[in-house]
Design brief:
8 helices, binds flavin mononucleotide, alpha/beta, Rossmann fold, six-stranded parallel sheet, Elongation Factor Tu (Ef-tu), domain 3, kinase, binds adenosine-5'-triphosphate
Length: 307
C-alpha cells in the first residue's frame, strides 16, 4: 500500500475506486464501503482511501481530541484489507474552504477516479455543502460512477464512529466491539512500572498508550493480549493506580494469566472483552491485592465459560 501524507501534491496514474471520510475506528458501516472497494478492485481499479489528517482539538473546533484508531493503526488496518493507496490529506484552510465541485474535480484529476463510494450522509467541501446528490450529479460530467450506500444501523441508529466512542466511554465494551466488528484494542510498548506487582505476587506488563488514543473508563477489564503473534488471556487495569502514591501516568496495565516472561520493550496489543469494575483507591496494598485476586478469578471464569 502506498501511504501518501503531509502533502497536497499527490498523483495516481492508475484508474481508482475511492472512498472518503474520517474512518475513525473502521467500523461495520465502513466495512460496507470496503466491500464495494474490493469488488471494484476485482474489476481492475486500484482501491484508494482519501482521509484527512486532522490536527488536535486546540487547532480546529468541533473535532474530538481522542481517536478510536491512531493514524498508524489505520494504516495497518487499510493495508490488511488490500487498500492500494491511503491518502491522508492535510486539513488546511485551503482544503477546508474548497468549493464542493472544486473538491470533486481535484480528486478526479489527481487520483484518476472512476468510481466514488460513499454513505448517503457523506458531506464535503466548504461548510459541508457537497452531498451525495452532488456526487451523483457530477458523475457524468467528470466520468466516474457514484455508488451511494444506505447507512448500516444498530438499534435504529446509524453506526458511526461517534456511536462507538460513546459506548467505549460508557464502558460498554461488548456493544462497542459489536459495532466495530472486531475487538477494541490498544497497542503500545511495554515499559517498566513501579515493580510493586511482582512483590505482591501479581506481575503486570505496563503499556503507555498513544496520547491521542481513546481509552475506556478507568477500570478493570478482561482482555486478550498479543505478544509476538501469540495470544494470552489477561486482566487489565486502565488508570492511574490511585492506591499507589505519586503521580502515576495513565496506563494500561495487564496481568497475564499463567505467564512469566520478560517482555520489556516489546510492542503488545491489548484487546478488550468486558469491563469488570471501576478502578478504586484502596486503603492498603493488601486490600488492593485481595481485590486483584478476585479480578483474576473473574477472568479465569470468563474464559472457562468461553470454552
Ligand atoms: C487486575 C488489576 C486490577 C487493578 N486495580 C486497581 C485499582 O482498583 N486501584 C489501583 O490503585 N490500582 C489497581 N491496579 C494497579 C495496581 O496498583 C498495580 O498493578 C500494582 O501497583 C503494581 O504496579 P507496578 O507494576 O507498577 O509495580 C490494578 C492492577 C491489575 C492488574
Ligand atoms: N453505518 C454506515 N453505513 C454505511 N456507510 C457509512 C456508515 N458510517 C459511515 N459511512 C460512510 O463511511 C464514510 C466515512 O464516514 P466517516 O468515518 O467520515 O463518518 P462516521 O463513521 O459516520 O463517523 P462520525 O461519527 O465521525 O461522523 C462516509 O462515506 C460515510 O457516509
Amino acid at each position: 500500500m502506498k501511504y501518501i501524507k503531509n502533502t497536497l501534491d499527490f498523483h495516481v496514474e492508475e484508474p481508482t475506486v475511492i472512498s472518503l471520510g474520517k474512518f475513525d475506528g473502521i467500523h461495520r458501516g465502513h466495512e460496507l464501503l470496503m466491500e464495494k472497494l474490493a469488488q471494484k478492485k476485482e474489476e481492475g481499479l486500484k482501491a484508494a482511501i482519501f482521509t484527512f489528517d486532522i490536527p488536535p482539538k486546540k487547532n480546529v473546533e468541533h473535532i474530538e481530541a481522542k481517536v478510536l484508531t491512531t493514524n498508524e493503526e489505520k494504516m495497518h488496518i487499510f493495508e490488511g484489507i488490500g487498500i492500494d493507496y491511503l491518502i491522508e490529506c492535510p486539513f488546511t484552510r485551503e482544503v477546508m474552504c474548497m468549493e464542493p465541485e472544486d473538491f470533486i474535480r481535484m480528486l478526479v484529476e489527481k487520483l484518476n477516479v472512476k468510481c466514488i463510494v460513499a454513505g448517503e450522509d457523506f458531506h464535503f467541501g466548504h461548510n459541508r455543502r457537497g452531498d451525495y446528490q452532488m456526487l451523483k450529479r457530477y458523475a457524468l460530467v467528470y466520468g466516474y460512477e457514484a455508488l451511494i450506500l444506505s447507512k448500516m444501523k444498530e438499534d435504529e441508529r446509524d453506526i458511526s464512529s461517534t456511536f462507538v466512542r460513546e459506548e467505549i466511554m460508557a464502558g460498554n465494551i461488548e456493544k462497542a466491539n459489536h459495532l466495530l466488528g472486531y475487538r477494541y484494542f490498544v497497542t503500545g510498548m511495554v515499559k517498566h512500572g513501579n515493580q510493586i506487582g511482582r512483590t505482591i505476587g501479581i506481575p503486570t506488563i505496563n503499556l503507555i498508550p498513544p496520547e491521542e488514543k481513546l481509552l475506556p473508563p478507568f477500570g478493570v477489564y478482561v482482555t486478550e493480549v498479543f505478544i509476538d503473534d501469540k495470544r494470552y488471556y489477561g486482566v487489565t487495569n486502565v488508570g492511574c493506580k490511585p492506591t499507589i502514591k505519586g503521580n502515576n501516568p495513565v496506563g494500561v496495565e495487564t496481568h497475564l494469566l499463567d505467564f512469566r516472561e520478560d517482555v520489556y520493550e516489546k510492542v503488545v496489543t491489548v484487546e478488550f472483552r468486558t469491563m469488570i469494575r471501576e478502578e478504586r483507591k484502596f486503603e492498603s496494598i493488601e486490600k488492593l491485592q485481595e481485590q486483584m485476586m478476585n479480578d483474576i478469578a473473574f477472568t479465569r471464569a470468563f474464559f472457562a465459560k468461553m470454552k
